[in-house]
Backbone:
């Protein structure tokens, strides 16, 4: 009964929060476009269709064609899929690793915390992209999935730092002490007592990691170290710049991919602000 | 203060060792064989004997026929002597020389954009917090800017100002018809080529900083001391001043933490504008599979970021008196 009421309250404030709702609608729109889009497109992403080369959007080619006569819309919707995949898996791995390290360091404290903290700080200082670059440069064949793995395994320190700090403040609370005294196992304390009390924090961390992974993937793709066997939004931008879309004025080629990334990541950030307001009454607009 | 710097230096030292180890390890333990790749690329594998001879020659040249621990020590040894190998793409220029010729452009691009975006972002962010009109304009713009991929903003600026309006050049660091010299004409050309890459780095950075500052100020204005001051009847400006002072400290730490992202942004921005810094070199190195140059760029980036971090630490100590008195204001 009490639980039910709490859930309703959360829903009430969520649905009333314009930022959260607007962000969510935009994300769902792009997600659906990414899943349904390829069904509507009769073309293959790399097929040379248009003998005229780069042509502006038309009824036949909704987003126009590239320098090679490929259909931009087909590439775009498939790129959206890759973008969401990288965000979900890369961001997911980053969050899970961050949770693991953050909970361990924050709950155990002492020497374990000290060592994990130093490791976190070291990886935080190293520019992630530089490491990804050098790994990706030596791998001859790369898929979207390997890209997700790389990103996830290098993006966790942000999450770990934030979760550790939260765990630290929670673990000395009375209810955690009580659980400990009643003989609960540490793992159970973390998942039953500590994690639920920072659920909002974990959700927000995941959203940030999701957006971050998308941006890193776009950067890697743009330098030419993205997936070698698939299309992605970053890759579209790279190819368009390499083949002179700027000089030729083929704006329909390089605007959609970047715009989609900006809108998706921007909506994620704005959703986060909304969530923060839902969870933290102090921040709500008066 | 000694404790503070000691801890920082320990972390930077370990980071550097780890980075060098990664740099050493990846070519040796990754699937695939860099020397084979290099040889197949230049397609000298016409006769089996010649290819084998070349393979042995390169293995020996790179010291790959030694035991691993010795390779590792040799790697450090040559690194300490400033030897980063020879670029195969710009053969026979040493990697060090190639990098040194690119670094001034990076410094010229990065330092102004980082400092100015930080200052401007904090300034506007602080004003935007809890003031209806500014908040409704600065915050959305800030979120959009910080969500923009660096290269896309670069592409847009290059396309709009360079191609559509034709007011700015979009490639190189100075006009291709000029040789570097100390004339006003040349300096003008350098500044003209610098402006768009600078602007795209500045804008993305500005967005992030403004948002960060706005959020921090709101937290500070909700803190007990702010409410207390308010209850005492202190003027609004004074409360905001205190809030600002408190919010600046995490913003400095935040800047240090976001350096990696900024550097990554600079790399792709340079690629968009063909600006001859490390990023542009790196792209050329990747496309030509010049492994020594890639590794050199990697080390250089790491070293630059560590150095910048240290500079920010010093700034932090100057600004926050608590770290000087040994009352660690910030935990590591």
Residues:
């Amino acid at each position: 009964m009490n639980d039910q009421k709490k859930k309703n309250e959360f829903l009430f404030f969520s649905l009333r929060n314009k930022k959260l709702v607007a962000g969510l609608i935009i994300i769902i729109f792009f997600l659906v476009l990414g899943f349904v889009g390829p069904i509507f497109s009769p073309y293959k992403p790399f097929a040379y269709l248009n003998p005229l080369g780069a042509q502006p959007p038309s009824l036949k080619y909704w987003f126009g064609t590239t320098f090679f006569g490929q259909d931009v819309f087909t590439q775009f919707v498939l790129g959206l899929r890759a973008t969401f995949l990288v965000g979900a898996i890369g961001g997911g791995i980053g969050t899970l690793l961050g949770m693991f390290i953050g909970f361990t360091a924050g709950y155990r404290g002492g020497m374990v915390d000290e060592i994990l903290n130093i490791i976190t700080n070291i990886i935080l200082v190293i520019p992630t992209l530089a490491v990804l670059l050098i790994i990706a440069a030596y791998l001859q064949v790369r898929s979207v999935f390997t890209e997700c793995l790389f990103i996830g395994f290098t993006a966790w320190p942000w999450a770990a730092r934030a979760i550790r700090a939260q765990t630290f403040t929670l673990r000395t609370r009375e209810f955690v002490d009580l659980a400990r005294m009643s003989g609960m196992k540490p793992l159970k304390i973390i998942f039953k007592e500590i994690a639920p009390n920072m659920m909002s924090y974990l959700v927000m961390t995941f959203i940030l990691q999701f957006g971050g992974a998308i941006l890193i993937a776009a950067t890697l793709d743009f330098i030419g170290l993205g997936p070698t066997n698939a299309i992605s939004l970053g890759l579209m931008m790279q190819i368009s710049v390499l083949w002179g879309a700027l000089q030729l004025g083929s704006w329909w080629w390089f605007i959609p991919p970047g715009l989609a990334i900006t809108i998706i990541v921007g909506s994620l950030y704005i959703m986060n602000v909304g969530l923060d307001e839902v969870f933290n009454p102090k921040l709500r607009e008066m | 203060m000694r404790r503070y710097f000691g801890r920082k230096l320990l972390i930077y030292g370990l980071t550097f060792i780890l980075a060098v180890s990664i740099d050493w390890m990846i070519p040796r333990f990754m699937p695939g064989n860099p020397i084979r790749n290099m040889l197949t690329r230049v397609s000298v594998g016409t006769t089996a004997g010649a290819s084998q001879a070349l393979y042995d020659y390169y293995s020996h040249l790179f010291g790959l026929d030694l035991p691993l621990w010795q390779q590792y020590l040799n790697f450090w040894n040559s690194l300490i002597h400033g030897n980063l190998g020879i670029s195969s793409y710009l053969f026979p220029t040493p990697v060090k020389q190639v990098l040194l010729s690119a670094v001034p452009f990076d410094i010229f691009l990065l330092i102004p954009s980082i400092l100015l975006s930080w200052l401007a972002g904090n300034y506007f962010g602080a004003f935007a917090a809890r003031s209806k009109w500014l908040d409704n304009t600065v915050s959305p713009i800030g979120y959009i800017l910080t969500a923009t991929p660096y290269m896309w903003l670069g592409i847009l600026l290059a396309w709009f100002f360079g191609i559509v309006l034709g007011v700015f050049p979009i490639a190189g660091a100075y006009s291709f018809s000029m040789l570097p010299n100390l004339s006003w004409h040349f300096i003008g050309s350098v500044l003209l080529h610098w402006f768009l890459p600078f602007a795209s780095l500045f804008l993305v950075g500005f967005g992030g900083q403004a948002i960060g500052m706005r959020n921090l100020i709101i937290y500070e204005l909700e803190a007990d001391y702010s409410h207390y001051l308010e209850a005492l009847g202190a003027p609004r400006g004074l409360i905001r001043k205190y809030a600002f002072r408190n919010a600046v400290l995490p913003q400095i730490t935040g800047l240090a933490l976001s350096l990696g992202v900024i550097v990554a942004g600079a790399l792709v921005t340079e690629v968009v504008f063909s600006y001859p810094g490390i990023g542009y070199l790196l792209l050329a190195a990747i496309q030509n599979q010049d492994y020594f140059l890639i590794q050199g760029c990697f080390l250089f980036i790491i070293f630059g970021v560590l150095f910048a971090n240290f500079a920010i630490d010093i700034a932090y100590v100057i600004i926050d008196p608590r770290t000087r008195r040994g009352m660690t204001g910030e935990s590591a």
The two ends of chain B are 12 Å apart (CA to CA). Chain B touches chain A through 64 residues (CB under 8 Å).
